[in-house]
C-alpha cells in the first residue's frame, strides 16, 4: 500500500538469505504491546508483564513461502515517546498499538503516528506503520469506535486492525505478517530505486522544529548529511554483534540488542 511516511530505507539481504525485518511495537503503557508480542511469539496470552522492561526478540518466520528473520522490539516508553531514535533508526516497520477501551491510549497512538510522520519528513524515508486497536475482547467497554480507529489510520495512510492478545493466535499472527509484507514492499522498492546508504561519520544532529508542537520535545532526529554518505555493506558480509542501547532517559536496565555489524546506532 502507499505510505505517507516518505521514502524507503535500508534492509534485506541477498537472494537466498532470509529477509531481515526489524519491527518496533509502539504505544502508551498498558495498550498491550507486550501481550501482543508474546502472543505472536509463543501463541500464549500471559496477563502480567514488567512494564519497565524493553526487549528485542528474534523469530524465524515464513511469510508467503519466504523465510524471514524477524526481530521484534517491544518498546517501553513511559507516557510519551522518549529516546525515540533507538527504534526510529532501527525498525523497518512499526506497529502502533492502542487499547479500544482507553481513549487516552488512542490519543497516545496518534502521537506516535505523528512522530513517525515527522521523522519520515525529516529523513525523506518511508516507515510503514500499522495501527492496532487491541483488547477487542473488551469491546463492551469501548471508548474508541472502530470508525475512529479507521479514520486515524486513514489520516496517516496506515493499515488498521482491531485485535485481541487473548483471542485467536491466527489473527495476531496475520497482523505481524502484514507488517512484514509492508516492510518487504518498501525494501523491494528501495533496492530497485537506489543503493543503500548509511551515515559514516558526521550525522547532522538537530532538534526537529515540529517536535515541540507535537509534545515530542524529548525526541531528536538525526538527519543524514549528504556529504558523509557511504554505501552500506551487504548483509551477507556483516557479522552479528551484541550491543547495548543508550538508556539515558530510562530507569530500566539496558536491553541487549543483536544488530548487524556495519550498521551504526545513532
Ligand atoms: N482483556 C485483555 N487484556 C489485555 C490484552 N492485551 C493486554 N492486556 C492486559 O493489559 C495490561 C497491559 O498489557 P501489557 O502487554 O503489559 O501492555 P504494554 O503496552 O506492554 O504496557 P507497558 O509494558 O506498560 O508499556 C495487562 O494486564 C494485560 O494482561 C487484551 O487483548 N485483552
UniProtKB/TrEMBL annotation:
Gene3D superfamilies: P-loop containing nucleotide triphosphate hydrolases (3.40.50.300)
UniProt organism field: Bos indicus x Bos taurus
Keyword Nucleotide-binding: yes
Protein family: Belongs to the small GTPase superfamily. Ras family.
Catalytic activity, as annotated: GTP + H2O = GDP + phosphate + H(+)
Database matches in PANTHER family: RAS-LIKE FAMILY MEMBER 11
UniProtKB keywords: GTP-binding, Hydrolase, Nucleotide-binding
CDD domains according to UniProt: RERG_RasL11_like
Highest taxon above the source species: Eukaryota
EC number: 3.6.5.2
Cross-referenced InterPro entries: P-loop_NTPase, Ras-related_GTPase, Small_GTP-bd, Small_GTPase
Gene Ontology molecular function: G protein activity; GTP binding
Pfam family, one: Ras
Keyword Magnesium: no
Protein's recorded name: Ras-like protein family member 12
